[in-house]
Amino acid sequence: MEKKKLDSKILWQLFKSTFILSASTFGGGFVIVSLMKKKFVEELGWLEESEMLDITAIAQSSPGPIPINASVILGYRMQGILGSFIAILGTSIPPIAIISVISLFYKQFRESTIIATALTVMRAGVAAVICDVVIKLAQNIIKTKSILYISLMFITFMMTYVFGVSAVTVIFLCLGIGFVTLFVEILKSN
Amino acid sequence: MSIIWSLFLSFIQVGLFSVGGGYAALPLIQNQIVNIRELMTLAEFADLVTIAEMTPGPISINAATFVGTKLGGLPGALICTIGVIIPSFIICLTLAHFYYKYRNFSGVQTILASLRPAVVALISSAGLSILTLAIFQAEKEAIVLSNFRIVECLLFVAGIIALRKFKVGPISIIFGSGLIGTLIYLLPSLF
């Protein structure tokens, strides 16, 4: 990769975006990935959609917290190692700050009816955001008109949702299928 | 060996061996903090899990901060969090480097193209699980139709319409649904 010129505007935008996304991520790694897709692909136009999917696959199959993993890759893509560092700061400052404050009075926090209610109803909004992202992503897979990719999408969905196969297993399985398709392509072209 | 140093080493291991996100990290944290180093009781650990789930942000970062704060104040929180992050930073930086170096090769594109449908499926599956949890207050294995929540269902539909038709931002949707839903549930009890 060519050396990226450091751009303080991009660095600031990177920090601001990861900070806000991290502070609003209620739920697991796929929630923040959906938010990142909306922010960095749709709103800022920094990444292509396929790139965001690749980043998700790498972040999901690497050890460690998925939001941190995705931030490291995203930051590196935009501004090299410094970008990675800034994106990590943006993603980790909100939880550190929030937990440090809450740990002082967590009994009251845990027993508050208002907070408990807000957290459960908020899931409806989180589900709506993910659903919106998924509709666009699935449309684009269907647009490829490739029977292989469309059936891969449905089969892996059944595997994870119905049979509870782990995400990492699914990713490595598809990685294997990718190698087989590559091999077949090479055989065909010879 | 001081507590802080031993926490730091524990959380490096948590970061290094938790593949697949927050719920993979929790048993590792329990093993390190409750079983091996005996820095917390099981009841305190249960509190930690509840708080980590109730607050925004990655669960393992939340957990690391919570353990760190309890055992060593703000410096403890920072050290534990840095411990969890270090393996991620090194591994993902390396992978990102190779990804951006080779991703435009056609062979690499062929392999990545088979991964992308799977990622879409994984995100869909996560979304559907959260939706079931929102509408039935239960995992999909334990759905009881009488638990159907009309408020959450309407919030979900309104959220989709606001996102797709009116281009409302996702963060407004998340906090907005929380605010409106809480008002609907708790206002009647005030009068």
Question: What is the gist of this entry?
Answer:
The complex is a heterodimer of chains A (190) and B (191). With 190 residues, chain A is mainly α.
Polypeptide structure, described:
The complex is a heterodimer of chains A (190) and B (191). In chain A, 83% of the residues lie in helices and 0% in strands. Chain A has helices at residues 8-23, 29-43, 49-61, 66-102, 106-111, 113-143, 147-162, 167-189. Chain A starts with 7 loop residues before the first helix and ends with a helix. Chain A is globular, with a radius of gyration of 19 Å. The mean pLDDT of chain A is 90. With 191 residues, chain B is mainly alpha-helical. Chain B is built from 7 helices and no strands. The longest helix of chain B has 44 residues, at 59-102. At the A-B interface, α1, α2, α3, α4 and α5 of A face α1, α2, α3, α4 and α5 of B.
Name the features.
heterodimer; A: 190 residues; mainly alpha; 8 helices; B: 191 residues; 2 domains; globular
Number of strands of chain B: 0
Shape of chain B: globular
Largest inter-chain interface?
Answer: A-B, 106 and 102 residues
For the sheet with most strands of chain A, the description reads: none
**Cα end-to-end separation of chain A:** 30 Å
Helix and strand run of chain B: HHHHHHH
Helix content of chain B: over 70%
Q: List low-pLDDT spans of chain B.
A: none
Kindly report the average pLDDT value of chain B: 88
**Helix content estimate of chain A:** over 70%
How many beta strands in the DSSP annotation of chain A?
A: 0
Number of helices of chain B: 7
Q: Report the β-strand fraction of chain B as a percent range.
A: under 5%
